[in-house]
Amino acid sequence: MDLHFLSDMGISHSQIRTEARLAIPPLTIGNWIDGEECYASSNRRFLKLNPRDGVLLAQVTRSAAEDVNFAVIAASRAARAWDARGLDSRADYLLSFQEAIEECFSVIAQVLALETARSERDAEAEVQAALDLATVILNESRALGNLQSLSSQNSQFELGYRTPQGVAAAIHSGALPFLHFMRAAYAALINGNTFVWKPSKAVPCLAAALSEITKECCFPDGVFNVVYGSGEETAQALVSHHSVDLIDFVGSPQAFRQIESACSNRSLLVKTISNSIPVIVCEDANLKTAASTTARSVFDKESKFHDVRDVFVHESVYDSFRDLLMRESYRYQPAPLLTERKLLRLLKSINQLGSGKATVLSGGYRLMDESRKSGNYLAPTVIEVREKREQDLPDVSAPLACLHSVRHIADAVKMIGKDTQLPSILIHTRNHDLAREILYSSKAASVVINGCAERYALPFNDEYFNRFSIYTSVIRTNGDDDSHSDIR
């Protein structure tokens, strides 16, 4: 797979350029609409900087409502023909896309690592998990199928079939961007929907690379479209468009409320509210192990597979665990935040925390030493929270732990929220029955007992997959003189 445009960034199959401030000509990235690159009508752009050192990586077109309209119209025009190709043909396109990703696996992982300031090992783990999930979705689509014979008895024949929603839009945050993209794109496209993606401003080069791959795989024009821009302008225009039939949203509760209020009444909203993983420390936990693995999950830039922030600790062991965690936090070098804007928002929120609601125990400031002063680095931060309010701190991936003392473990589950879809929950306990009980009472995809979150997992089941299509059951009754169909 020839991703020739990435050579301008100094990216090869074997290595990423790590020297600071190389004279690399920045990319200029435009929207991908109707099978070709095009720029916003206003010619406005935003800058994508390397989070580690502030070097300019790309100038990216900034889409307004007019540009979003072009993308949605292109997707609408392509929708009928894409649906008419049938399940097997669509699966062939997606399989070729998956094979192309596997062919340039290291390049995609390097782009992801460069843009999100993560280790290459971490990025490779996400890419592999996304490919595994794509395989699951393709297998699921064949199991559920476009046409299914459900029953045939007493001269009645029941047939079920699926029709697409139409135009599916995806609006995603910068956390696990490739994994969320593959889940939404594959679920939408295999069901016969066309796709309009508004990626996070943190990963425009990744989105551009994926657009090039769809071209290499000969995707029909208009089936796959990408628009870049801000949440306030581009995402709002996308969700309020009358021709968008389904929206897959991944982000914070605050952003979801804005999206929900602007959402077209015709659109079906599929939401994944939280990307972060909570930690629960029970009274029977091994505190040294719990503090060590929690610190690694929160602060270590080399092994931070997931965003971990909220740590719920039983009140009987809270003081001991807090002291151990603070001691462990000094051992790690944190990864930078994705953008300076996110860092400044977080610092402002930390400074505005009221003493009655929370106390900053350590960190809470920007690292300004010689090697990191040009990057977006937050010192490892531990905050003691006495009153949990989701609006107090922005939902950004950062080396930040919020400690909560709970009287009962059930209180922790309640604070996490039963309506929040979680990749996993980290539980420190010797009681495995309690861990299973927590799993069943939450919407987590999995639990990790006495360890770190070292595997990517997203909630994916029939319920999520089925949102991307409309299921119809037809009952036919055959007799000598009459036959009829009931559609329900």
Task: Summarize this entry quickly.
The protein has helices at residues 65-84, 86-103, 105-116, 120-144, 177-190, 204-216, 231-239, 253-262, 287-299, 318-329, 340-351, 409-416, 432-441, 462-466, and strands spanning 27-29, 31-33, 36-38, 45-49, 56-61, 147-153, 156-164, 167-172, 194-198, 224-226, 246-250, 268-272, 276-281, 307-314, 358-362, 381-385, 400-406, 421-422, 425-428, 443-444, 447-449, 469-478, 483-487. With 488 residues, it is an alpha/beta fold.
Oligomer: single chain
State the CATH class of the largest domain: Alpha Beta
Record the strand order, biggest sheet. 15-16-17-14-13-19-21
CATH H-level superfamily of the largest domain: Aldehyde Dehydrogenase, Chain A, domain 1
Low-confidence runs:
10-25, 146-150, 480-488
CATH topology of the largest domain: Aldehyde Dehydrogenase, Chain A, domain 1
Query: What's the tally of helices?
Result: 14
Strand content: 15-25%
> Could you give a short account of the major beta sheet?
7 strands, mixed
Would you report the number of β strands?
A: 23
Fold blueprint:
Elements: E1 27-29, E2 31-33, E3 36-38, E4 45-49, E5 56-61, H1 65-84, H2 86-103, H3 105-116, H4 120-144, E6 147-153, E7 156-164, E8 167-172, H5 177-190, E9 194-198, H6 204-216, E10 224-226, H7 231-239, E11 246-250, H8 253-262, E12 268-272, E13 276-281, H9 287-299, E14 307-314, H10 318-329, H11 340-351, E15 358-362, E16 381-385, E17 400-406, H12 409-416, E18 421-422, E19 425-428, H13 432-441, E20 443-444, E21 447-449, H14 462-466, E22 469-478, E23 483-487
Parallel strand pairs: 1-5, 8-9, 8-11, 9-10, 11-12, 13-14, 13-19, 14-17, 16-17, 18-20, 19-21
Antiparallel strand pairs: 2-3, 4-5, 6-7, 7-22, 15-16, 22-23
